[in-house]
Design brief:
Layout (H helix, E strand, L loop, with lengths): L1 H28 L4 H7 L5 H11 L5 H13 L13 H36 L4 H15 L2 H15 L9 H28 L2 H8 L4 H38 L5 H10 L3 H29 L7
Helix pairs in contact: 1-12, 2-3, 5-6, 5-8, 5-10, 5-11, 6-8, 7-8, 7-10, 8-10, 10-11, 10-12, 11-12
Length: 302
Amino acid sequence: MLQYTVKRLPQLLLTLILASMFTFAMLRLVPGDIADVLAVQGAVSEADKAQIRQEQGLDAPLAIQYVQWVSRLVRGDFGHSYWTHLPVEALFAHAAPKTLELAVLAMAIGLVVGLPLGTLAGAFRGSLFDHAATFLAMSMIAVPTFALGLLALLVFSVRLQWLPATGSVVLASLVLGTDIAGTLVRTLRSDVRAELLADYVRTAHAKGLSPLTVLRRHVLPNSLGPTVTVMGLAAGHLLGGAVLIETIFNWPGLGSLMIDAIRNRDYPVVEAVVMVMTAAFVVVNFAVDLLYGMTDPRVRTP
């Protein structure tokens, strides 16, 4: 385990370095900066734009700007927002718990719906329930998250008026959790079907174990390895999906914070949010690789 961790660390660091370079470059390719945004809004004059760029270090060569930003980043200093002049850490302290709440609820919904549907669909392969669950899973995956979010707003907020149109974590988490549930159903269904055809299942039946006992004690635990991997990828998907969903439902999390920062060309905030999300995705997937070897005895971490 320790050898595997040491071997993976350079890959993780390289991923973070490439992400920082890509984020920095993409932001600078977008036309305009904070001085231009303030000038368009009439907050500063054209003569003040040069002074603002000098104060924020935006007049320095891009290579120097990048090195200065990375040097602060490795010290844990995210800098100050160009727009609010508050420390980026303070903005994170307000937005991150909201995104975490949304992600946890969405993951819970995905597990509660996806695990039983996928298990039963695999156990009763070829049945009407199997076909219905497969169709439902494909529908969950096929509909884009933003389209499902708008549809949910139209149905539950506008037509039925069951939930508020903005600030509803219930509706937002249901939309995000739907895609996770669909992916889990497809993955777990295939894995359960494959395990049911294994020799050890026939042996367990020959020993007199009931089908439910075989499914619960043997088949399901052996099917959880790929499911753990899917959940790790789903965690990364949640971070990306949160950007759209938080905007649609006006949920004040990291996604909304980043969208507002992009509009205002607030480089420190955007860079910080992207790097934190990237680091979280990398760490989660690394943890999933380790858990895969623990949940499935047939797999050993190299």
